[in-house]
DNA sequence: TTGCATAGGGATAAATTTATCCCTATTGTA
DNA sequence: TACAATAGGGATAAATTTATCCCTATGCAA
């Protein structure tokens, strides 16, 4: 794993939650797992823009942070399932709120984001 | 400014909010501005781990995304003030919720984060 | 027998974000 | 006169995160 050179600072609640939720796909992974897409291959199909590799890595981090649990079924072809832990479930209202804010302000957000990206 | 090579994908609300809130210091900037630390130098003092440079850059992005407004006073030495826009204020409940979750789970989060960082 | 589905990881390159360092300008103070 | 405070930005290096490519293994279906 990558060895950090600049120490993390974990001063407040915002630092702490950032540490477990930062990661391009983590929030989406939590959300889809909650919606019932529990197997890596299902998640990969739900998030085709992400490579299988990153999803694996981020799932592993979510697991290390105890937000999801992993079950490996001893069968062939292999079967693995992720589930939210109780701890992970406590994030659902937050994720839902984030998504809702984004959806409610979709038009405006698209406008300002595009303007910034394509400004002269 | 940096010219993006991989196109953004802005499919859902989660993508949209991520686009404006990602950035190591953005959430904190919004929070402190709301608490009354409106001048760049004040913000810098509140967030000493960040360099002045990054704060400027992230403030600029927040402004471009219409979450904060900037007022320049024509005086010397220069005085600048940032304020949340009405739009920016709608993020406060979300930020508050994020911080609260982090605070409430502080102990557990520190444990899992440290474990992951220092694992054998 | 070739190919697909399953799941996972190593090695390395590329993209993106932050960090550092330096320079501009003005007024007041030691 | 030298330095601090104010605000801001260019250039470049470093850190960090993602993307790509390749390899392992097994059993089933065409």
Automatic annotation (TrEMBL), chains A, B:
- Which superkingdom? Bacteria
Q: Which residues form the HTH hxlR-type domain?
A: 12-110
UniProt keyword terms in alphabetical order: DNA-binding, Transcription, Transcription regulation
What taxonomic lineage is listed for the species of origin? Answer: Bacteria, Pseudomonadati, Bacteroidota, Flavobacteriia, Flavobacteriales
The name on file for this protein is Transcriptional regulator
Stored Pfam families: HxlR (PF01638)
């Amino acid at each position: 794993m990558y060895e950090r050179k600049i120490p993390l600072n974990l001063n407040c609640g915002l630092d702490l939650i950032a540490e477990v939720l930062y990661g391009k796909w983590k929030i989406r992974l939590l959300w889809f797992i909650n919606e019932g897409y529990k197997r890596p291959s299902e998640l990969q199909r739900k998030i085709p823009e992400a490579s299988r590799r990153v999803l694996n890595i981020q799932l592993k981090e979510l697991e290390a942070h105890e937000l999801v649990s992993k079950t490996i079924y001893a069968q062939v072809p292999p079967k693995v399932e992720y589930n939210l832990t109780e701890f992970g479930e406590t994030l659902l209202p937050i994720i839902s709120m984030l998504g809702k804010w984004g959806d409610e302000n979709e038009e405006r957000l698209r406008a300002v984001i595009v303007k910034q990206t394509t400004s002269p």
